[in-house]
Amino acid sequence: MRILVATDAWHPQVNGVVRTLTKLADAAKGLGVEFAFLTPQSFRTFAMPSYRDVRLAMPRPARIAKLIEEARPDSIHIATEGPIGLMVRRYCRQRKLPFTTSFHTRFPEYVRARVPVPGSLIWRALRRFHAPSRAVMAATPALARELSERGFDNVVLWPRGVDTGLFHPRAVDLCLPAPVFLSVGRVAVEKNLEAFLDLDLPGTKVVVGDGPARAALEEAYPDAIFLGEKHGEALAEIYAAADVFVFPSKTDTFGLVLLEALASGLPVAAFPVKGPRDVIGDAPVGALDHDLRSACFAALGVSRQDCVEFAANYTWEASARVFIDSIQAVGAVLSGRNGAEPVSFVA
After folding, report:
1. Is 82 left (phi over 0), alpha (psi -120 to 50) or beta?
2. Predicted TM-score of the model (pTM)
3. Distance between CA 224 and CA 227 in Å, rounded?
4. Helix, strand or coil for residue 137?
């Protein structure tokens, strides 16, 4: 089986969508399923307004059609609602081809953080985009319920995973005053990093990541340590060396960094909002509080071993199985393509 994923988010971007799709494809190989990607790398691009590090594609319908036909997919999944997602949706609609979609980003909150646009208008556009999808995949039960309540049809649950081979406890010393409070992610206005950096905390605040707000935040908070983007072992070592993972975002639909931190034995401090609340729930692996400072102090007392054991329940193989099974369950396999037969898995 060969699945074509259309995505406006791709390397060299560093975000949850890119990491999710990359890990999904790697895990699917072990299940006998191949992934192909239709990304901005195949088109001319332009810098996204207010976020020049992100480049949006300028796809032409003929080019989209050519790339899809060359890929010869057995199924088409649209991961993002950007220019590529729109063009692939149009291609499928014109040819009456089934497809699936996923909901990764809270665009209403993301856009409102930059432009005064009514959230109701954005939600209406998102409903229209996803309406023809055979399955709209959501990362958590709470997000799936919210989408259904907002009028989205065919919503299914698609949980995420974490690479415990990379993210795990280890003895690392950052040689910084303890305790170390760490935040990892895109350094942008919607991540609400000021809520973390404004806190009166002992020890050291460390921020890993890059983005349009980094220069201004570095200047405004000279006592915080900004390490820029980190990947692989370098990132895993920073997680393991910290004492609390602080997640100030109120707009994330999931937050893969939460699982990466927990797998590293790092308890979480966050606001009690969708994203951290959906991942952690009532598990004793962190502290959720409207007072983020109180959450940080409470997280210091959390068992690191409990965090590791909690994260072990999330694997990318399980995530890939759910993704593939969802495609087949809703009949989103293109008949007559490559002679593909449904793939079945044994639990």
Report:
1. beta
2. 0.86
3. 10
4. strand
Domain definitions of the chain by residue range:
2-161+315-329, 180-311
Q: How many CB atoms lie within 10 A of CB 199?
A: 18
* Distance of alpha carbon 206 from alpha carbon 184, whole angstroms: 8
Alpha helices in 150-291 (DSSP H): 193-197, 214-220, 232-241, 256-263, 276-280
Query: Is a pLDDT exceeding 70 seen at residue 342?
Result: no
- Residue 305 CA to residue 22 CA, distance in Å, equals 28
Given 1.20.140.10, 3.40.50.2000, 3.40.190.150, 3.30.420.40, which CATH number is that of 2-161+315-329?
Answer: 3.40.50.2000
Can you give 40-89 as a three-state secondary structure string? HHHCCEEEECCEEEEEEECCCHHHHHHHHHHHCCCEEEECCCCHHHHHHH
pLDDT at 341 over 90: no
**Please, what CATH class does the domain formed by 180-311 belong to?**
alpha beta
pLDDT of 224-283, one tens digit each? Answer: 999 999 999 999 999 999 999 999 999 887 789 999 999 999 999 999 998 899 889 889
Tell me the one-letter amino acid at 42.
S
pLDDT of residue 289 exceeding 80: yes
